[in-house]
Amino acid sequence: MAKSEVIINIEHLSKSFGDKKVLEDINLYINRGEFITFLGPSGCGKTTLLRMIAGFLNPDSGRITMDGKDLLGVPPHKRPLNTVFQRYALFPHLDVYDNIAFGLKLAKVPENEIETRVRKILKLVAMSDYEDRDVTTLSGGQQQRIAIARALVNRPKVLLLDEPLSALDLKMRKDMQIELKEMHQKLGITFIYVTHDQEEALTLSDTIVVMNEGKIQQIGTPADIYNEPVNSFVADFIGESNILNATMIRDKEVNFIGHDFKCVDSGFGENNPVDVVVRPEDIYFTESENKCQFTATVKSCTFKGVHYEMFVETDKGYELMIQDYDAYDVGEKVMLYIKPQDIQVMKKERTANVLQGEVIDSETIEILGGKFPIPNELEAGTEVTVEVPFDKVDLVDDAESAVLEGEVYFILYKGDRYHLTIKTDEGFLWVDTNDIWDKGDLVGINFMEGGARIVE
Amino acid sequence: MKKFFAQAYLWLLLLLLYSPILIIAIFSFTEAKVLGNWTGFSLDLYRNLFEGGVSNAMLRSVENTLTIGILAAILSTILGSIAAIGIHNLKGRTRQAVTFVNDIPMLNPDIITGISLFLLFVGLGVTQGYTTVLLAHVTFCTPYVVLSVMPKLQQMNPNIYEAALDLGATPSQALWKVIVPQIKPGMISGFILAFTLSIDDFAVTLFTKGNQGLETLSTFIYADARKGGLTPELRPLMTVVFLVVLILLAVINIRTMKSNKNKK
C-alpha cells in the first residue's frame, strides 16, 4: 500500500483566524486507499485541515490537489468526497432510508438503483431492518452507522471522518473501531480520520499525522510514531512515557538522571542538550549487580489489569514511571537497567525562550505585550531579541499583579521538574518549575532579576 | 380551607379578567339594541351576521382584516425566516447588535410605530390605503417571526447544512431540503403569531389607513362607537373573533408543548 499513488496533495497550507494562526505551512500527501489519521489535542488545527479538504473553509494560502486537480475553488457539493460528522448531522425530518438516499436523489440516480444501493449499504453497516425508522429514535451508535452509510452510499473516492466515535461510550467505540477498520479494508477507499484519541489512532491507521499548535509534528506509521517520536510533544501525546532532559556525551552515549547510558542514536553532536524518552515498559528490574545501571526506591505501585504501574525515585532524585508484570513493595530498593535500543534520543525543540521585544525606556522592554523591567542601554523603540532561560521565568498565582497574564497550556513532567508551555495572548512561553500547576490555570508571568539577556 | 381560598382567588381573578368578553358573549344571544338589556334568548344577531342584512361596511372591514392579516402573516413569515437565518449566521457582537435592533420594534409602543409610519408615508408622498396598512403590519410582525424562528435554528445541529452540501446539494437545495424543514415549526408559530397580531392591531392601522375609506374591524368599531352606539351585530362578531383567536392560541401552545415533549 505504501507504494500506491498519491490521491490528495497538500502544499504550504496556512490559515489564520484573526491574529491566531490555526495552520502553519502544512505539507502532506495522502496515498490512494490509505487510512490516515490527523491526531492532536483540541485546537491543534486537525479539524480545520479536514474542513479545508471537505471545502467548508478556505485556506489563506497554499494548495490542495486531488488526482492532480486543484480542489480549492471547487464548492463542497462538487467535491468527490463525503464526510462523517462528529455529531452525526443526520437530517431529523427524514427517516433512515431517505437520509441515506439524500445524496443519490440529488445526483438523479434512478429510483430502483437508489433502492438497491441503500439496501446494500444498510447491510454493510448491519442496519438492514431499520429503513423506515425515524433517525431521532436511534441510539448514538446506530445513528453513527447511518451517518457512515449516508456518506459511503455515494461511493466517494475519499471518506472524511471528523471524530466520528467521540460521542460513543467506550465499549461501543471499541466495536466501531473494528468495524471501521473492516469497512476500510473491504471498500479500499481512502479514509481521512480526525481524532484526539491516540489509542484510536494507533489501532486504526496506516499513517498518523501528529499535529500541535497548527503544525505537523510527525508523520509516520503507528509503530514509528510510538517507538521513535521526534520530539517530546509526540512522545508525551502518544502513550505513557518518561521524558527527561539529557546530554548527548558523544555518539551512542547519553547522560540522563545522573547516569551515563549506551544508546543507538548518533548525530546529535558532543555535550549537546537533548531530550530522551523511555517508555515505562522499557525499564527493567534486575537482581544482578552487573546488569544494574542505577538503583531506586519504589514510591507507589498500582495494579492496572495486566501490569503494575510503579513510580520510583532514583538514587539521584528523579521520578520515573515503570510498568512491569511483577509488583514490588513500596519502600523496596530495586536495581534497574534500560536497554540501549529502548532509549529514544530527540533533538530539543528549544533550550531557552527566545523572544522578540521592543525597548520602551532604559528600564523596560515590551515582550509579548507585557512591559518587563529589563535594564538596558539601548534607544527607545529598538527591536531586540531577548533570551530567557526556562528556569528564570517566575509564575505567580496572582495574575493581576504580574507583568503578563497567561494560561497553562501543556504540562510535561521531566523526572525532576515540570516543563510548562504557557500561552499568552501574543505567543508562547516555556517554563521549568517545581511548583504544581494544572492545565488551564491562569498565571501571572514575571522574569527573575537578571534572568533576561539581550542577545541582539 | 387554605386550598379553598387559593382556588377561589384564582377563579375570581379569571372571572375579572374575562368578564368584559363574557358579557359581550352573553349579550350576543339577545336582540336588544342597547348592550345590557336582556330581551330574551335569540340567535337573530348571529343570523344577521352570517346572512347579510348587516351594513356592508362592517363585512368589508372584516374582509379587510382577514386578507391583511393573512397577507401580512405570509410576507412577514418569509422576511422573518430569511432574516433569522441571516442573523443566526452572524458572529459575536454583530449578532448581538442585530438581535437588539430586532427587539426594539416589539418593545416600542404601537402608537409610536403608527405615527412614525404615518410620517414616513406622508413624507414619501404615498397615498395611504390598503397597501400602506399591509406594509405597516408586515413591519411590526416580522420581528416576532424572527423571534420564533431563531430558537429552531439554535436547536439545529450546526453541521446539517454542511452535511447537505457534502452530499451534493447546492446551497439553495440545502436551504429547501434541510434548513426549511427544520425551522418549519418556528415558521408556523411565527405565521400564527403574525396573523393574530395583525387582526388585533388598532393603533398602527388607524395611522396608516389614510382617508380613502379603508376600515379594518378595529377601526370600524372605533368609528362606529364614536357615531353613537355600537351596531348590535358587533356582539356576535366579537364573540366569533374571540373564539378564533382562542383556538389559534391553543394551537400554538399545544405545538410548543409537543415539541418540548419531543426534545425530552
Q: Number of helical runs of chain A?
A: 8
Task: Let me know the largest β-sheet of chain B.
Answer: none
- Please summarize the sheet with the most strands of chain A: 6 strands, mixed
The greatest inter-chain interface is formed by: A-B, 26 and 20 residues
Keywords:
heterodimer; A: alpha+beta; Rossmann fold; OB fold (Dihydrolipoamide Acetyltransferase, E2P); 6-stranded mixed sheet; 8 helices; 30 strands; B: 264 residues; mainly alpha; MetI-like fold; 11 helices; 0% strand
Give the SSE layout:
The complex is a heterodimer of chains A (456) and B (264).
Chain A: E1 6-17, E2 20-31, E3 35-39, H1 46-54, E4 61-66, E5 69-70, E6 81-84, H2 96-106, H3 111-124, H4 140-152, E7 158-162, H5 170-187, E8 190-195, H6 198-204, E9 207-212, E10 215-220, H7 222-227, H8 232-237, E11 242-250, E12 253-256, E13 259-262, E14 272-278, E15 283-286, E16 294-303, E17 308-314, E18 319-324, E19 333-338, E20 344-347, E21 353-361, E22 364-367, E23 370-373, E24 383-388, E25 393-396, E26 404-413, E27 418-424, E28 427-433, E29 442-447, E30 453-454
Parallel strand pairs in A: 3-8, 3-9, 6-7, 7-8
Antiparallel strand pairs in A: 1-2, 1-4, 4-5, 9-10, 11-12, 11-14, 12-13, 14-20, 15-19, 16-17, 16-19, 17-18, 21-22, 21-24, 22-23, 24-30, 25-29, 26-27, 26-29, 27-28
Helix pairs in contact in A: 2-3, 2-4, 3-4
Chain B: H1 2-27, H2 44-51, H3 56-88, H4 92-107, H5 110-124, H6 130-155, H7 160-166, H8 171-200, H9 203-208, H10 217-228, H11 234-263
Helix pairs in contact in B: 1-11, 3-6, 3-8, 3-10, 4-6, 6-8, 7-8, 8-11
